[in-house]
Predict the structure.
Amino acid sequence: MGKPKEIDYGFKINHKKLWALSLPVEELDLSELQYNFDIFYLEKENTDDWNLSINQLLANLAKEPTHAKKMDKADLKYPLEIYLHRNKWIVLDGIHRLAKAKSLGYKKIMVRRVPKNLLEQIKE
C-alpha cells in the first residue's frame, strides 16, 4: 500500500524546520481531527508499509508494542502540527500524541496550524 494521499506532501518534512516556524499555539477540539483517526499514518509491527491507523492501533495496542511505547512516551505539552487539506485538518507531526490524547479521553488538544504557503519552508 502506498503512502495515503492525505499525507503525501510530495517531499520529506524537515521536522527541525517545522518546529522552528513561528506559529501560535491554540486549543482545538479533538473532534476536528476525527478524520485523522482512520488515515494509515503508521506501520504495523514487522512491516514496511502504510497500513495502520490510530483507530487500529488503539484497538490492538498489545500487537503494536513499538507504537504503544511511543504513545506512552508522547508528551502532550507539545502541540500537534496540522495543515488544511481539502477542508480537513491533517496532522503533519504528532500522531502518537494524537493517539495518546484520544486514548486518555481528551476533548481538546494543543495545535499549531501550518499555512500551506509555509510548507515549502519545511522541506528536507
The mean pLDDT is 92. Residues 10 and 123 are 9 Å apart (CA to CA).
